Amino acid sequence: MDVLVIGAGIVGLAVARALGRRGHSVIVAEAEGAVGTGVSSRSSEVIHGGMYYPAGSLRARHCTRGRRMLYEFCRSHGVPHARPGKLIVATSEPERAALEGIAERGRANGVEGLAFIEGREARALEPNLACVAALHSPETGIVDSHALMLALQGDIEDAGGAIAFHSQVGAIRRESGGWQVEVCGEDLSFDAVVNAAGLGAQAVARAVEPYPGERIPRQVLAKGSYFGCLGRPAFSRLIYPAPMEGGLGIHLTLDLAGRMRFGPDVEWVDAPDYAVDPARTEIFAHAIRRYWPGLAKDALTPDYAGIRPKLTGRGEAAADFLIDGPAEHGLPHLVHLFGIESPGLTSSLSLAEEVADRLVGSEP
After folding, report:
1. C-alpha span between 261 and 147 (Å, rounded)
2. Who contacts 129 (Cβ-Cβ below 8 Å, separation ≥6)?
């Protein structure tokens, strides 16, 4: 088939790669001038283990499977990555139960190597840490997300596909057994369309005729800011607090050079805004000192911010990934991806295989 994938973020690139490897002719339409300029370029670059998500959910299944696929892809393609592991910490006794729940979900999801340890054992691993207990995840890693996207782009092009930059998609209409798509003002014909537009997924879906508008979920934007940290690294592993509403808490991650950074927090916003407010420094410092009392004054520096395209908002349970394909909406060779936030990077290669299966499967 001739397939149009809309969006050249990590998930869109992974989908295009999966389709190209199956022999389909693939074009990726990207409104910006480079890959991954949206959600994909503003993440923590963490390869997640898969222990946070309800058993049987798309997030649980694709995170765990996708993690294994991603490590193999990074090895085979020379993508810089590391597997330092992480500690999810309880800084008070009431938080211990939260960790036990995470461990139980992790075991149900098939996450390897999880170990519940007491505070003294955690401090033996990370002497600067303050906690009463921790959950050790040795499979958690970090990756150079830009190098990952370039490797995916290379595989797409090796399979004969291409990425069309500065290509804004307009109306999408079902005609003559295929899809007519307006790209930069011109109508082009495709056999199939995948909407992997991230923050723009709902807008793309509204442009599809005759896709039912009532199927388009609301989009809730959660801004997450990150702060860098001056000085030498105080930890060799990633450190996560017990999860908070809307996210996993202000955690400590490491880049591949070993530098520490903290975030993201959760700030509900009405429109994308990537400015990091220096006034949030004290909020970060207070949260960090719960597990790292040794954080020096004035060590935090504003770094960057990202926007998560959530399907649920404040006070609501986190939604699963939403894949709306032919079997669900009744239109052939059309797949929409909604709410692909964390762990979207980790899940990308596994998600791509499911999208390809749904796209080229039997008619609804």
Report:
1. 19
2. 87, 89, 122, 123, 235, 239, 291, 292
Residue 84 is which amino acid? P
Instruction: Return d(Cα 183, Cα 284) in angstroms, integer.
Output: 43
Compute the distance between CA of residue 358 and CA of residue 272 in angstroms, rounded to an integer.
31
What DSSP state is assigned to residue 54?
P
* Mean pLDDT across 59-65: 98
Distance of alpha carbon 227 from alpha carbon 355, whole angstroms: 35
Reference 10, options 210, 152, 111, 106; nearest CA is 152
pLDDT (tens digit per residue) in 133-192: 999 999 999 999 999 999 999 999 999 999 999 999 999 999 989 999 999 999 999 999
Q: How many CB atoms lie within 10 A of CB 267?
A: 17
Q: What is the pLDDT of residue 243?
A: 78
In angstroms, the CA 289 to CA 177 distance is 60
**β-pair type (178-183, 220-229):** unpaired
What is the strand order of the sheet 2-6 is part of?
A: 162-164, 25-29, 2-6, 192-195, 334-338, 322-324
Give 336's strand partners.
Answer: 195, 324
- Averaged pLDDT for residues 216-220: 97
Buried/exposed code over 208-217 (b: 16+ C-beta within 10 A; e: otherwise)? beebeeeebb
State the DSSP string of 210-276. SS-GGGSPP-EEEEEEEEEE-SS-S-SSEEEES-BTTBS-SEEEE-TT--EEEE---EEESS-----
Q: Is the pTM of the predicted complex or chain greater than 0.70?
A: yes
Strand partners, 134: 89, 117
Give the Cβ contact number of residue 61 at 10 Å: 20
